[in-house]
């Protein structure tokens, strides 16, 4: 195609979703993805999972490489943390393959809560906003509300075939101490629906042994547990029809007339393709699913698979975009390196009327900054790259059960994560001295989730590779491993202007392009949260002490609680950098994710998040891409046009 309507950069939850919607609506689309299509080999080599052989060596260890980054790519890190070696590092990548992070994600599928879209309003009402400002944070409301997002959350959950128990998730929110305490606040009454009724499209994922143990621990500690909503066709389900699920989402849209795209019937929106149920093989963590017909959800098995059938859409893997072409105040297309043979890169161009950037928060900022050498595309007010957020990873607790429990915690069942709770989404400061500015106030923490271990052989292999463990040492490590369970906090990482992505002034990649430099430090809110969560994590294991499974919660061989998150453990969840907002002086894109500066360029990945929530981002990325795509389609057909 000579000039397409839309050139989309990146093929994951943001790019894959919007490319499909626009193409299905009739627009011509060119989708550029820097990585290869690694799922192709499943068909080519006929390597589909065989349920009769739980062949971990073949299916887990012999997997193709993860392709977190393409050959020769890297970022640099800049931090004042003394443990961090500043300079090039391997982090801050989701995945560089067709499907992006949606291929290797853990499938934890949360929609955000109404309060997440109004965090500045909330902290202003409680008198904490000034404290946060003085600490260096720039907490702001989203320009869109939960209610505007809700119908798109419903559709996103159908595309992701989320397996869950809505009543249990709602109960976990409503039963939390913070939620009860916030009922007197004005904004909570108007924020939106905290108790959605749209049923998850699949029944909840079965509770695994580890999930059961953790649920009991949560419940005994007064934290209401719920099965973790998971983006995969629940084991035991009949074949999953996305079309039927979309029909339910359309019916739930409400009494308002549906926006143009969604006025179609479900069979005009989706094919009759079916997906199979997950068979609990457990080989998908950080890798694509081996199951036939896509049990694990990704853009690759849903929207991109549909896109492949649309004639006026072209999907181009191995296309590394290095410039949004720009002339007289408008983008004219994209320039990319065809790296099908990385030793012989070829420069190519695709002209387009509109460009949609969805390369992940780090690479989207890098691409915009590279595209206009003077100061960066969309960066007239120096906002591109700022407010980078990554969630607080590495912070959680592990518990090792006694030897008699050997064999009870089958780590290889299912995927990662199984039980969750909203109990500590906000936590009250009950440790600071009375009268201090933080004491008695509720601070943002996040969701707690049980984290299943990776497969045993995979773990043994990595212990051999990374720690050199062999013989008795390896066996004893593996014995402990099979008795261990973990709880992870997905902690909110509040936005600060100084935490940012910019172009490294010294380092370039193998093609001579400047790499992304990530500046990151924790602030006082994170430090406070690490302190407040210590005893709350410990409380999750009190039940095991009471029932005689553990004898001493202070014995690090029984319970180990991290002291803080790890500043360099970033990439899986990357947010911020192209903030969405109404004020061009303080944001990069408007409420429809269009650059304030360049009206025919949009950004639709997690980089537009003004705040990052205390939960996983994928469902919101997709819901937002659906919302923006719907508006683009509607606007382009209206008298005003898209501009
Ligand atoms: C290991 C892991 C586990 C995760 N688990 C969960 C989870 O359980 N739940 C959840 O909600 N989220 C999870 N996430 C996060 C989730 O995957 C991301 O939030 C989601 O994928 C974001 O989608 P995105 O569209 O913003 O872009 P990304 O997934 O970051 O994809 C960006 C795409 O753009 C491509 N790209 C980048 N630069 C260029 C360029 N210059 N030219 C062309 N293409 C380019 C990349 O190759 C990639 O395919 C996880 C992520 C990882 C890595
Ligand atoms: S456990 Fe993961 S890889 Fe195995 S079938 Fe289920 S979703 Fe697919």
Descriptive notes:
This protein has 643 residues and is α+β, with helices and mostly antiparallel strands. Helix content is 28%, strand content 17%. It is built from 20 helices and 23 strands. The strands form six sheets. Strands 1, 2, 10, 11, 12, 13 and 23 form a seven-stranded mixed sheet that branches. Strands 6-15-18-19-14-22 form a six-stranded antiparallel sheet. α7 (146-159) packs across α20 (618-637). The longest helix has 20 residues, at 618-637. The radius of gyration is 24 Å and the shape is globular. It starts with a strand and ends in a 6-residue tail after the last helix. Bound molecules: flavin-adenine dinucleotide and iron/sulfur cluster. Flavin-adenine dinucleotide binds next to α4, β11, α15 and α20.
Quickly list its features:
643 residues, alpha+beta, six-stranded antiparallel sheet, 20 helices, 23 strands, globular, binds flavin-adenine dinucleotide, binds iron/sulfur cluster
């Amino acid at each position: 195609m000579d000039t397409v309507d839309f050139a989309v950069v990146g093929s994951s939850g943001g790019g894959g979703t919007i490319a499909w919607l626009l193409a299905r609506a009739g627009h011509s689309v060119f989708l550029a993805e820097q990585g290869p299509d690694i799922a192709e080999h499943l068909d080519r080599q006929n390597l589909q999972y065989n349920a009769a052989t739980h062949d971990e060596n073949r299916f887990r260890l012999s997997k193709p490489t993860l392709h977190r980054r393409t050959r020769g790519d890297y970022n640099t890190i800049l931090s004042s943390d003394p443990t961090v070696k500043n300079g090039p590092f391997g982090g801050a990548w989701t995945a560089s393959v067709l499907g992006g992070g949606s291929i290797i994600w853990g499938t934890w599928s949360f929609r955000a809560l109404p309060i997440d879209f109004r965090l500045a309003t909330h902290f202003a009402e409680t008198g904490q906003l000034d404290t946060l400002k003085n600490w260096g944070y720039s907490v702001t409301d989203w320009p869109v509300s939960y209610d505007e997002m809700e119908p798109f959350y419903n559709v996103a959950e159908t595309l992701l075939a989320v397996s869950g128990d809505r009543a249990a998730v709602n109960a976990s929110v409503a039963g939390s101490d913070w939620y009860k305490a916030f009922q007197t606040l004005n904004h909570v009454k108007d924020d939106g629906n905290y108790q959605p009724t749209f049923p998850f499209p699949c029944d909840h994922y079965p509770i695994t042994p580890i999930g059961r143990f953790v649920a009991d621990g949560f419940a005994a500690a007064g934290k209401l547990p719920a099965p973790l909503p998971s983006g995969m066709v629940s084991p035991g389900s009949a074949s999953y029809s996305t079309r039927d699920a979309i029909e339910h989402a359309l019916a739930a849209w409400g009494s308002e007339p549906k926006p143009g795209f969604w006025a179609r019937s479900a069979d005009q929106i989706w094919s009759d393709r079916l997906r199979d149920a997950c068979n609990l093989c457990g080989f998908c963590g950080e890798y694509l699913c081996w199951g036939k017909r896509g049990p694990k959800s990704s853009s690759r098995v849903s929207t991109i698979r549909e896109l492949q059938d649309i004639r006026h859409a072209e999907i181009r893997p191995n296309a590394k975009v290095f410039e949004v072409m720009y002339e007289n105040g408008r983008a004219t297309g994209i320039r990319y390196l065809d790296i099908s043979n990385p030793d012989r890169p070829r420069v190519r161009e695709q002209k387009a009327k509109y460009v949609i950037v969805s390369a992940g928060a780090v690479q989207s900022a890098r691409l915009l900054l590279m595209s206009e050498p003077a100061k960066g595309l969309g960066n007239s007010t120096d906002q591109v790259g700022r407010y980078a957020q990554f969630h607080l990873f590495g912070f959680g607790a592990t518990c090792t059960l006694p030897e008699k429990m050997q064999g009870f915690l089958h780590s290889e069942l299912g995927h990662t994560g199984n039980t969750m709770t909203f109990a500590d989404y906000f936590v009250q400061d009950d440790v600071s001295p009375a009268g201090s500015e933080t004491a008695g106030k509720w601070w943002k923490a996040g969701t707690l989730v049980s984290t299943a271990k990776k497969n045993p052989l995979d773990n043994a292999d990595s212990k051999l590779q990374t720690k050199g463990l062999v013989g008795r040492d390896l066996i004893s490590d593996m014995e402990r491993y099979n008795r261990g369970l973990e709880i992870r906090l997905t902690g909110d990482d509040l936005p600060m202007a100084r935490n940012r992505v910019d172009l490294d002034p010294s380092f370039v990649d193998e093609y001579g392009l400047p790499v992304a430099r990530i500046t990151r430090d924790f602030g006082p809110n994170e430090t406070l949260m690490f302190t407040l969560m210590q005893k709350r994590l410990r409380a999750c294991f009190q039940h095991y002490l009471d029932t005689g499974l553990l004898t001493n919660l202070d014995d690090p061989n029984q319970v180990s609680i991290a002291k803080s998150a790890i500043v360099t453990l970033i990439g899986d969840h990357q947010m911020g950098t192209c903030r969405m907002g109404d004020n061009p002086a303080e944001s990069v894109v408007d409420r429809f994710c269009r650059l304030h500066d360049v009206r025919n360029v949009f950004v639709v990945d997690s980089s537009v998040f003004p705040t990052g929530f205390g939960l996983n981002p994928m469902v919101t990325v997709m819901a937002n891409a659906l919302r923006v795509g719907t508006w683009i389609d509607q606007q382009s057909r209206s008298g005003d046009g898209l501009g």
